[in-house]
Design goal:
Blueprint: E1 10-15, H1 23-33, E2 41-46, H2 48-51, H3 58-75, E3 83-86, H4 92-101, H5 106-110, H6 113-121, H7 128-142, E4 148-150, H8 156-173, E5 181-183, H9 219-227, H10 245-258, H11 262-268, H12 274-301, H13 303-332, H14 338-343
Parallel strand pairs: 1-2, 2-3, 4-5
Helix pairs in contact: 3-12, 4-7, 4-13, 7-8, 9-12, 10-11, 10-12
Length: 344
C-alpha cells in the first residue's frame, strides 16, 4: 500500500523534530494517526525544514530527526502500508513553497496567530522563515493531492490558508490542486494538560520536568511524575475542567490509556482516593508506553534498517511530489524540461 492508491483518499500527517514528544502528542494526535492506515492512502512526514525557524544545534537536530522517525514506527505506523519520510529529503517541498509564496498575500501571513506568538517568544530571531512557515506547510500538503489533514486547534488557521492558496491557484489555472479538508477528531483525541499547571496544555517546552511525561520516559520516571501531579483538596474524583482541572486531566489520561469511557472511569475511581488515581493512571500510561519504548529501541539500535525505511519513503514521496510539480510548473508557464519526460 506504499504506492499511491487511487481508490483511497490521501491523508498526510507530520510533526517537527524539535525534541521528544509528550504523551499529550501521543494521546492527542499520533495515536489517532494509526487507524488512518486502514482507510486512507497515508503519508507521515518528519518536517525538519520547519524546525529551522528556530536556531538548532546541527548534531542534535540530526539525532532528533531520526528519533522522531523511530517514534513514528514504534507507535504503529507501518512502512509497508504508509509512506514514512523526512521532509528535507524530498526537494519538491522547498520548490513548491517558493512557487506558492507568490500566491500567498502579505496580509494573510500577517494575520497568522502562531507567527505572532512565536515572534514574541523568539524576539532575537524573527526571521522570514517564521513568517512564511504556513506557505511551506501548504506545500507539504498540496504536493501529494492530500484530501484530509489531522489538525489541532493551533494548525487550523494554517490549513485554511492552504485551502485559500489552492483555490486561488485553481481559479487561475484549472484544477491542479486537491483542496484539503481538516480532520478534527472529537472522539479519541484526548486534551492532555500540564501535570503541574493543569490550566495549560502539556508541552515539551514546559519549564518543569514534572509538568510533562515524555513518550520515552522510563516507567519509574512516569510513576514519579504522576505521583507529583497537582490535584486539589476537595477529595472528590469527577470530571470538572473548571473546578478540578488536575483530577479531570488524570481521569482523561486514564481513559485515553485504557480505552474506557468517562462513566467507566467514574465507576472505577468511586473510592475518591487521589493517591490511587495517580498510581493507576501512571500504570495505565506505562502499559501503553512499554511496547512503544521497546520498538523504539529496536529501530535506534539498528540505524541501517531505519535509514533504509526512510530512504525508501523519500523515494516514494518524491515520485508523487514530482508529478504535482510538473503540473504546477506547466500551468505557470515554467519549462519542465527533463522533468516532464520522466514524470509526464
Amino acid at each position: 500500500m506504499t504506492k499511491a492508491s487511487p481508490d483511497r483518499q490521501v491523508a498526510l500527517s507530520a510533526a517537527q523534530p524539535t525534541g521528544q514528544l509528550t504523551i499529550g502528542n501521543l494521546f492527542g494526535a499520533i495515536q489517532n494517526w494509526i487507524p488512518l492506515q486502514d482507510h486512507y492512502d497515508t503519508l507521515y512526514c518528519v518536517v525538519d525544514l520547519h524546525a529551522l525557524t528556530v536556531r538548532q544545534d546541527p548534531q542534535q537536530l540530526r539525532q532528533r530527526i531520526l528519533e522522531l522517525a523511530a517514534i513514528y514506527l514504534a507507535v504503529g505506523i507501518d512502512p509497508e502500508r504508509s509512506v514514512v519520510f523526512i521532509q528535507s529529503q524530498v526537494h519538491q517541498h522547498a520548490e513548491l513553497a517558493w512557487l506558492l509564496s507568490t500566491f500567498a498575500q502579505l496580509g494573510e501571513l500577517e494575520r497568522m496567530t502562531q507567527f505572532k506568538d512565536k515572534a514574541q517568544r523568539h524576539r532575537l530571531n524573527v526571521n522570514a522563515g517564521l513568517f512564511t512557515y504556513p506557505v511551506l506547510m501548504a506545500a507539504d500538503i498540496l504536493l501529494y493531492g492530500t484530501h484530509v489533514v489531522p489538525v489541532g486547534e493551533d494548525q487550523k488557521q494554517h490549513l485554511e490558508l492552504t485551502r485559500d492558496i489552492a483555490i486561488r491557484f485553481n481559479n487561475l489555472y484549472g484544477p491542479i490542486f486537491q483542496v484539503p479538508e481538516p480532520m478534527i477528531q472529537a472522539q479519541g483525541a484526548a486534551r492532555v494538560r500540564d501535570l503541574q499547571n493543569p490550566e495549560k496544555k502539556m508541552s515539551k517546552s514546559a519549564e518543569s520536568e514534572l509538568a510533562r511525561v515524555m513518550i520515552l520516559d522510563d516507567a519509574a520516571t512516569v510513576l514519579k511524575k504522576f505521583k507529583k501531579a497537582v490535584t486539589d483538596s476537595l477529595g472528590v474524583i469527577r470530571f470538572d475542567e473548571a473546578g478540578q482541572a488536575g483530577v479531570t486531566n488524570l481521569l482523561t489520561l486514564w481513559c485515553a490509556a485504557t480505552g474506557n469511557s468517562r462513566e467507566a472511569a467514574l465507576d472505577h475511581f468511586s473510592h475518591h482516593q487521589y493517591g490511587k488515581l495517580k498510581v493507576e493512571t501512571a500504570e495505565a500510561v506505562n502499559a501503553v508506553l512499554d511496547p512503544i519504548r521497546q520498538r523504539y529501541r529496536h529501530f535506534m539500535e539498528d540505524p541501517g534498517e531505519l535509514q533504509r525505511i526512510l530512504d525508501r519513503g523519500a523515494g516514494q514521496a518524491a515520485i508523487r511530489a514530482e508529478k504535482i510539480m510538473v503540473r504546477v510548473m506547466d500551468a505557470l508557464g515554467l519549462p519542465v524540461g527533463l522533468r516532464g519526460h520522466r514524470h509526464g
